[in-house]
Design goal:
Blueprint lengths: L3 H17 L4 E8 L2 E8 L2 H5 L4 H18 L4 E6 L2 H23 L3 E2 L5 H11 L5 E6 L6 E6 L2
């Protein structure tokens, strides 16, 4: 899907994008499952990530639109800054396991705090193979959340 020329252009355009916003970033590119992984390192990650990753999500959306047009191909990107997403996923998985263990022990369901669709998906996938609990998303955005229930 991507050749060396495409990847070089992506890197150049991404550097230009952040430079024009006034940020110095180091970029590492890779392709996994036909998704372009953009891993950035910045001295000012908190500004680029925002509260609960909200700015990161918007930057990813904007950068994807720009890169799709510049490269002339449609593709998905996954933007991470200073391993924020990687650490967040690890935290969500650990928290899901802990809550699921508690639910299985007490037989009382537990509603988690509101999360983005992406974060809820991480929880559902992490607990999908467990026979002692089940998960369900309830509510409406932005208050949508996962409920972990004992399997009956």
């Amino acid at each position: 899907m991507f050749d060396k020329k495409d990847l070089a252009k992506v890197k150049k355009e991404t550097e230009k994008f952040f430079e024009e916003m006034g940020f110095e970033v180091e970029i590492k590119l890779s392709v996994e499952n036909e998704t372009l992984q953009l891993n950035l390192t910045s001295n000012e990650p908190q500004i680029l990530i925002g509260e609960k990753g909200s700015i990161l999500v918007q930057i990813q959306r904007l950068l994807k639109a720009i890169l799709n047009r510049k490269i002339g191909k449609f593709f998905y990107i996954d933007l991470d800054i200073n391993d924020y997403k990687k650490k967040k996923i690890q935290y969500l998985k650990e928290m899901a396991k802990e809550v699921a263990d508690k639910v299985a022990l007490t037989k009382e369901e537990k509603a988690l705090s509101p999360m983005s669709a992406y974060e809820r998906r991480v929880i559902h996938l992490e607990l999908a193979d467990r026979a002692d609990v089940t998960t369900q998303s309830i509510g409406r955005e932005p208050e949508r959340r996962v409920v972990i229930k004992p399997y009956s």
